[in-house]
Design goal:
The protein is mostly helical. It has two domains: 144 residues, no CATH class; 120 residues, Receptor-associated Protein (Up-down Bundle), CATH 1.20.81. The protein is built from twelve helices and no strands. Helix 7 runs antiparallel to helix 8 and helix 10 runs antiparallel to helix 11. The longest helix is centred in the middle third of the chain and has 46 residues. It starts with a helix and ends with a helix.
Length: 304
């Protein structure tokens, strides 16, 4: 009796949440009416021609706005979203909505006879997995973006050295490097563009550079920012400092490549043991084992 009751309660909550999420928002209606008055034309209801992805995103936002949040979780989560490349204010709401929707979907998948026999224990475990898995995916996305920025930093430093030695200031060099890297390394180009916008808005250069290091989460970029701030503070040559740091960074990249190559042999042990060696044993020892069984078993039975 407990499982049908839980399914009924969950279905009622899901239907009510969907109806509340799809209900037109008053602020959206006001904005639509203002647009009609300013443009002079009546805008048709865009729910029919809006793509399915936009509708799902709207539903996820509505769910995320009602999701419970803790103050301890908001700071690291916002930083992780920024490091993954999601800087908009609604990014956190969308993430909470995805987490809740995915957890409820896992509960429905295991609590109803869709794929298998309903099991409340597996359903509760699916809820926990659905709640944790979006955070793991977000951490993986942030790690990949950090790796791409780290790989692009050496080329950016070379361009920055050329720009500074050509007579540009540090701010103009950052802007120029961001423009030149827009096609090859879009992540680093976006970060440098944000630094340029912060400088134009009136922020001090050390603060803008520290924000760059905090947004990206790259340790090499953090060292570069510290070096630039100290160079600006003590009045030393920016071009010479960048050139020295560029050589140091390339040495670190070569050491990382050598370290990864040295780890290859250890990482290949597990695929060899669990995937390749069993097949080799079956091919080499299988015929002998079959022959041994066919010859030995008749002898054993004859002795009996």
């Amino acid at each position: 009796m407990l499982l049908p009751l839980l399914a009924f309660v969950f279905g009622s909550i899901l239907v009510g949440g969907a109806a509340f999420a799809l209900m037109p928002n008053r602020a959206i209606a006001i904005d639509r009416r203002l647009e009609e008055l300013t443009t002079g034309r009546v805008r048709e209801d865009d729910d029919d021609d809006r793509p399915t992805v936009d509708r799902m995103l709207k539903f996820v936002k509505r769910v995320g706005e009602k999701a419970p949040r803790t103050v301890k979780e908001l700071g690291p989560l916002r930083l992780r979203l920024v490091q993954a490349g999601y800087r908009r204010e609604e990014a956190m709401t969308v993430f909470f909505g995805i987490r809740i929707v995915f957890a409820l979907s896992m509960f429905v998948l295991f609590a109803t006879p869709i794929l298998m026999k309903p099991n409340i224990t597996l359903a509760l475990g699916g809820v926990a997995l659905g709640y944790i898995l979006p955070g793991m995916v977000l951490a993986r996305m942030a790690k990949r973006r950090i790796h791409r920025i780290r790989l692009s930093l050496a080329d950016a430093l070379d361009l920055m050295v050329v720009s500074v030695e050509a007579g540009l200031g540090l701010d103009q060099a950052l802007q120029r490097v961001g423009q030149e890297l827009a096609f090859a390394y879009p992540e680093l180009s976006d970060e440098l563009r944000l630094v340029n916008l912060e400088l134009r808005a009136g922020k001090a250069r050390p603060e803008a550079l520290r924000n760059l290091a905090e947004r990206t989460g790259v340790d090499d970029l953090n060292s570069l920012v510290t070096m630039l701030i100290q160079t600006d503070k003590f009045g030393t040559s920016v071009a010479q400092s960048l050139r020295v740091y560029s050589e140091t960074l390339r040495t670190k990249r070569r050491q990382r490549a050598e370290e990864a190559a040295a780890k290859t042999g250890v990482k290949m042990v597990f695929p060899l043991v669990f995937c390749i060696f069993p097949a080799i044993w079956v091919v080499t020892i299988g015929p002998a084992a079959i022959k041994f069984v066919t010859v030995l078993f008749p002898l054993v039975e004859s002795t009996k």
